[in-house]
TrEMBL record, chains A, B:
InterPro entries with a match to the protein in the record: Creatin/AminoP/Spt16_N, Creatinase/aminopeptidase-like, Creatinase_N, Pept_M24, Pept_M24_MAP, Peptidase_M24B
Lineage summary: Bacteria, Bacillati, Actinomycetota, Thermoleophilia, Solirubrobacterales
Ranges annotated as spanning the membrane: none
Protein name: Xaa-Pro peptidase family protein
Domain Peptidase M24: 144-341
Signal peptide: none
Pfam families associated with the record: Creatinase_N, Peptidase_M24
Domain Creatinase N-terminal intervals: 6-134
Protein origin, superkingdom: Bacteria
Amino acid sequence: MSHAARVSALDGLLTDAGLDAVLATKDASIAYLTGFWGLQLERFFGVAVRRGGEGALIAPSLDRDSVGQAPTALEKSLYDAAKGNGLSTLYDTLDGAKRIGVEEDHLNFARAKALTDAGYELVPASDLIMELRAAKDAEEIAAVKYACTQIIAVYEELWADLKVGDSEADVNAKAAYALARRGGSHPEPHILFGAHAGDPHGSPGPRTLQPGDVVVADISAQFNGYWGDMTRCAHAGTPSDWAQRAWDVVKQAYDDAVAATKLGNTAKDVDAAQRRIIEAHPDLGACLHGAGHAIGTEIHEPPFLVASSDTPLREGMIFTVEPGIYDSQRGGIRLEDDILVGPENLSPYPLELRVLGG
Amino acid sequence: MSHAARVSALDGLLTDAGLDAVLATKDASIAYLTGFWGLQLERFFGVAVRRGGEGALIAPSLDRDSVGQAPTALEKSLYDAAKGNGLSTLYDTLDGAKRIGVEEDHLNFARAKALTDAGYELVPASDLIMELRAAKDAEEIAAVKYACTQIIAVYEELWADLKVGDSEADVNAKAAYALARRGGSHPEPHILFGAHAGDPHGSPGPRTLQPGDVVVADISAQFNGYWGDMTRCAHAGTPSDWAQRAWDVVKQAYDDAVAATKLGNTAKDVDAAQRRIIEAHPDLGACLHGAGHAIGTEIHEPPFLVASSDTPLREGMIFTVEPGIYDSQRGGIRLEDDILVGPENLSPYPLELRVLGG
């Protein structure tokens, strides 16, 4: 779908939602609607669309070159961030609109307060914007698939290189470089060893790979605006009884959760599919997170596959399915693929618990 | 200062500010107060401190291992993000406090609305938290200096390798790898060539270095929790008349702005020092941004050196001073160092317009 068609589709949702306008502020939403990727830092960026489809991409004049090249047909309104905060440009764009949908999980309190004080009524509208962003078209699905092929190539390099004595910091630096060399933006490998792999969000550090260690290799990066995100596991030497059993359990949870990623199910059905397997094995470790998250122009985007979500799965949604089991002493096991509702696996690559250094 | 001393210093500001408690939600503020670096994504993380100094670090149970290792003496309150959003844990921690200081430039609208609906009165308190974070102690100054020494080593590698025909994408991937190998987190080189360097926030792409191109090499990364951020320029072959004149002007603006980074001045004085030089040369290009930003546990943190800021410079503040001049056809020139109010340059390294490929 072209950027203009997306703006038009968003406009088509405003009347039913009782909104006069909508303001998108997330980088990924701005890029989805206009093709422009910004670097926000402390400055205000937004896309405001009034009922009827008119509106503007608002950005600091600092970004004039990239804004100028953006494919959007919307007006481009630049403001001088050295002199103002951009909100008066936003007010001009809103042009009489009063009830404004905003991305409530992104717009900050200061800007929300300024808008409210200026007389606007703010209405949470992340769901509205995500209703469009969540349903990926063929081109977007191909983009996620492409990102995954690049990540798979990096796994091949990783498995060929990784050996006992390597440090997490070095291995992650190399993987990030391999992703960047292939054109990946924001490469974020999280490759952890041994007990450290029992922390699903551990930061790579000086720990070196030791015989008997499990390896959890979570690799993600953005290619041409779309993310891929995968996890595979390995073991330094013959897998311990714990590692093999944990892998078997996670593989079962993965299979069941992937099978549940289909029309007719809700987000919590997918979570339940993995959770019932993982939670049945407390002797192996803990179930510390939901089944996964949607992925596209953001690495983590709504809907989230968690026990509290009744969101129905829809055609074109892509989710990471990533059950894991974690033990602070023995480490963790996680398997993660990017699954199009169907299910169709967009990141096919052997799931095996790879044995390193024979 | 220890993490406990920082919490205590923050508590010491609450009475005068008329606050019952303060809630820090930025990663960098949380790390400053507790030593814990999280990975927020969609989940709630915060540090709540009530008047009297009691409070808690609140995080998802997913992060239990890293939270467990954090040096903070505050209570550690974990919640299950698969089942709730963490706010009830926050309410328990606030324990009757009503008037709550929040980081208004970070807390999102959804959470602010939930807090307001629950009866809390939210008060902007970024300035209060930054009053502490902005004044760096000797250890923090040394950490920024260390980050700069690592970046300088990466410049040495860059200048030794860079040659006509190299692509921006490859050169940036290599620089990111060089930073990561040295232990840098979030390496974000922005090394741009020719006309593309006229976009201060351009993303590295397939463009290759051509004879006659200017090179703007902005290199930043975080080491041990603290950022360094520098920019140097080069030219492929003998500098053009434009490049040499633009460099001369930017060097003058840099000298004047560095000299203005002293006690007794305000943020806008530093900006004025560079702006009056850059804006006097519209034939060479445009002045697209302020003089710089504070730097520490965040790469861009308040105060910002912009024309609209009356914030007085204080002892221990560290700023990037980074005047630049930009032309969409001919490219850009920017010089950037990390300057302790004094001024003292924490990133001493030759500023020269380096000539590549003799």
